[in-house]
Prior knowledge:
Helix content is 25%, strand content 27%. The chain is globular and about 65 Å long. The strands form three sheets. A six-stranded parallel sheet has the order 10-9-8-11-12-13. The relative contact order is 0.12. The chain is α/β, with parallel strands linked by helices and 298 residues long. NADP nicotinamide-adenine-dinucleotide phosphate binds at residues 46-48, 133-134, 137, 162-163, 165-169, 186-188, 191, 206, 228-230, 233, 252-253, 277-279. Pfam families: ADH_N, ADH_zinc_N.
Amino acid sequence: MAGKLMHALQYDSYGGGAAGLKHVEVPVPRAKKDEVLIKVEATSLNPYDLNIQKGVARPFLPRSFPYIPSIDIAGEVVGVGPGAENFKTGDKVVAVLSASSGGGLAEFAVAKKSLSVARPPEISAAEAAGLPIAGLTAYEALTQCAGVKLDGSGNRKNILITAASGGVGHYAVQLAKLGNTYVTAACGARNIEFVKSLGADEVLDYKTPEGSALKSPSGKKYDAVIHCVRAAGISWSSFEPNLSENGKVIHLTPGPGVMITFAVKKLTFSKKQLIPLISTPNGEKLKHLVNLVKEGKL
Ligand SMILES: NC(=O)c1ccc[n+]([C@@H]2O[C@H](COP(=O)([O-])OP(=O)(O)OC[C@H]3O[C@@H](n4cnc5c(N)ncnc54)[C@H](OP(=O)(O)O)[C@@H]3O)[C@@H](O)[C@H]2O)c1
């Protein structure tokens, strides 16, 4: 592949949304130590990609311009760098690319071997490409922050999932139901049947007064909230009366206001906690998720 060109979409400054993307031909990247070169069959875009383009993480991300967005990909291994010989040409994989260099909206991309996972034939490239960031975030929020055990053991927990019809939320509902949980899900009216079909025990339409107050229709108090709505959406005062004595809100879009509430709750030894979460891509966890999809559990 050395010296060959590939098609890609990239932008060369902050802002501009989809219109800021330019179709270009650039050299095919090379797999270095512990990396694999993947021919991209499918990729997915997350709110993360839009936020990076907007400049939310400037000056750290992107590391440089021009930048090819998207970090969730599925495809076929076409090259193996030194140290990545556990993969071979022709292997189907799902991978998370480096956040700083991106690269998914292209014909070829390089991924670390540690963040590349074999994709079984039961899972299409499109299904696989939708899994990494959204699935891993839901997994981390439930297992590490909320303490849900996906084998169904552990004490029963009441869980609220906001934006349950979204990328993270729809995985969170399904993963939560693998545990010993009662799941209340909040979404828009058009998605109520969809979210029920994922296994939610009760569903709130967030545009109704009860829904926007986050009240469980069956009167449950939540042991954990997986809060997937963007930061400006819902304040602590809406969660607080609906939490159990030791209830936690796991917040996926932690801005300055969230960090202040987090610090205040910690410093005042509040039993009810706000937990900001920035998920960290992890190959072992991605493998677990791929297995759940293969087994038809996700
Ligand atoms: N911290 C991390 O590591 C991390 C990782 C991934 C994502 N995130 C963040 O998590 C958020 C969700 O990401 P995503 O990929 O799931 O986004 P998404 O697929 O765009 O989902 C957004 C969902 O929000 C729903 N929604 C909007 N307002 C709502 C409300 N008031 N109550 C309930 N649902 C509401 C919409 O539901 P309807 O269509 O039903 O109206 C839509 O399905 C984003 O802010 C993203 O940046 C953080």
